């Protein structure tokens, strides 16, 4: 019986041999932006849903949860950018 050849496994050590290309940097920064937009959008959407569920006339819950999500997104963005820059 012949065995099918297995693809070589990617090791962390081998990953360090690849140079940091501009495409990798673009992908890293793009993922940070997409994460930030998703957190902010989900925060405001969740606040609006909660505000509608509680049938409140003012939008204080929407604004409060949305601004909290904005703060979390900024914190996460700064942390990710520091991690990316420390790798380079």
Count of DSSP-assigned helices: 3
Number of strands: 0
The fraction of residues assigned to DSSP E strands is: under 5%
The ordered H/E elements are HHH
Computed structural class: mainly alpha
Shape: elongated
Low-confidence parts, pLDDT < 50 over ≥5 residues? none
Secondary structure layout plus pairing:
Layout: H1 12-15, H2 22-54, H3 60-87
Report on this structure.
The protein has 88 residues and is mainly α. It has a domain at 23-83. Helix content is 74%, strand content 0%. Helix 2 (22-54) packs antiparallel against helix 3 (60-87). It starts with 11 loop residues before the first helix and ends with a helix. The mean pLDDT is 84.
Name the features.
single chain; 3 helices; 74% helix; elongated
Short description:
By secondary structure, the protein is mostly helical.
